[in-house]
Amino acid sequence: MSNSKTVVITGASSGIGFGLAKAFLASGFNVVGNARSAGRLAEAKAQLDSPAFIGVAGDIAKPETARRLIQASIDAFGQVDVLVNNAGFFLPKPFIEYSPEDIQGMLETNLKGVVYASQAAAAHMIERRQGHIINITAAVALQPNIAVPAALPVLIKGGLNQVTRALALELSSYNIQVNAVAPGIIETPMHDPASFDFLNGLQPAGHIGRVSDIADAVLYLANAGFTTGVVLPVDGGMSVGKW
């Protein structure tokens, strides 16, 4: 057991989630990472190379995985101080082309995963009367963009933006802060480098963001004691309005 704070991160084996794990470890946190693939999680653990990181593989869209994830954090480190609901995927395409499989997949990971992980973490945090829940949503849910047709992600991530505010109120009396970070376009393996010239032009800043930009925002919220119900865009101005 450690005296350090503990963060649970879903979708921690690559991209933003992996970058968050690195940033939290560098800030002295214990990190419990979840991913669907045990193999990819093992690779991430090897790269992080820290005794303060443990991995819990499983589908976060299943409530038993969420419960097992939180219990593993308690067993290893004594508590859960922060939950980062990062697991999810972004699927831009014309609205009429979304298939039933697309819809089900996004509902499973992007919606159910957040609900089950948050329920399990909140039950523990209510007992301790402290904690932080941080949702990773999307700037395009704040300001849709005709160049990025993504009505289905907007539907789900927009709902997560609103439930962030609702849960912030519901859990405020337990000293639990609930916030969200809404990334714009971030340089991750999801994006082909050949597309960067196009992607750079989609935000007023003139360039896409870095994973470290998201990590800085999440770390701020993980340590903020008087900030709750906030959806913080980290998007180079993409969500400010038409430009």
From TrEMBL:
UniProt KW keywords: Oxidoreductase
Organism: Pseudomonas putida (strain ATCC 47054 / DSM 6125 / CFBP 8728 / NCIMB 11950 / KT2440)
Keyword Oxidoreductase: yes
InterPro entries reported for this sequence: NAD(P)-bd_dom_sf (IPR036291), SDR_fam (IPR002347)
Identification of the protein by name: 3-oxoacyl-(Acyl-carrier-protein) reductase
Molecular-function annotations in GO: oxidoreductase activity
CDD domains given in the database record: SDR_c
Protein family per UniProt: Belongs to the short-chain dehydrogenases/reductases (SDR) family.
